[in-house]
Amino acid sequence: MTFVVTEKCIRCKYTDCVEVCPVDCFHAGPNFLVINPDECIDCALCEPECPVEAICSEDDLPEKYQDFLEINAKYAKTWPNITQKTAPLPDAAEWEGVEGKIQHLEDYPA
What we know:
Layout: E1 3-5, H1 16-20, E2 26-28, E3 33-35, E4 55-57, H2 67-76, H3 92-95
């Protein structure tokens, strides 16, 4: 089992979760974080650290976020690993709690 970063992180990108991860399984995109499912050890330390509750256990993942299992796995392969807390995006507070942010998910240019 793994933990999954969901849509709630898009355009917020708080990194409180990164600091507590004992295996450094977080990867950072331009406006979103993902967890590498092959590296996650299911320790659950990251979940309570997220101020927007964007991290869920795979077993508790709501149906509307099921696509994020694949999204996390896909981007963990190409986005850089992040191991230290950084500042959230400048307008993060404005995006907290906004639903339907998937269209705002950004990838790095090819």
